[in-house]
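Many introductory courses stop at the sequence. We go one step further.
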Amino acid sequence: MKTPCSVIQDLLPLYAEDLAGEESRALVEAHLQECDACKQTLEGLRDARPMTALTDAVPLLLMKQLLRKHTLLWCLLTGCLIAAMAFTVLGRMTAPEGTPYIKGLFSVAKAEDGRLTVTVTSKSESGVDYLVEYFYNETGSESMSITAYTSPWLRAAKLDRSGTVYTARSKDVRYIYYCDHSRGGKLTLLKGPFTVTNPSGGVLLLPRLTLNYYFLASLALTGLFGVLWLALRGKAAGATLLSVTLGFFSYFLAHLLVKGTDGTSYFLLQDLAFILLTAAALLGIFVSAVSLYRLQK
């Protein structure tokens, strides 16, 4: 008796997946030798299997990608947080602090080539370093300025500069000053022609105010782009405006972390470098946090 096609077609999915028993398999194979319709049905089942497997795997692949992105974002956020803390601590630990002038701190002489030299004496305290700069004083003469400064980092390292010799860059340097940053840049004349109008330097080396302008500008631009983002956050430009807002806010916050509310600086490049590095780390934190928030929605 010939087995009906309806019975065989019920068994074909099991046969195609190699799950049918021996008797069912023998029954199906015997029927397939005589029925072309059931053969085509079997071929259709076998052709559909790879596509079905691929379709079933798509949600798993998407989930795997989301988990990988989630992990990477958390790693980025953690790394940026550590970097922001490190740059803030380093910025504060290495922030120069001016030290007052002590009489007899330097010994000034003239080298064999005619250039003036400044030797740090034993009165120099531990943890104090020196910076040499050049400018033109009120008489138009090229001048050499020496600044003594300390920092928590230098004090911890117990730096000792006693015996260090600083030589003027040319014979044209006739004046040597000590610049006291602890007294607002007051200059004390160490070497040079003494005049009534220039008994002790007669000029001040004022601190740079550039950081103040950057600080105020970043605050104003944060507010401006923040308002624009609130107005256009549902538009295509919303993501760009948010990134720009976070960038300016990162600089503003980095300035507060590294310098506080003080924007004056005698060491502009050093202060600006630590502010920018901290700002970059903070921006990474904000961008990662926003991306994680959007990923979880």
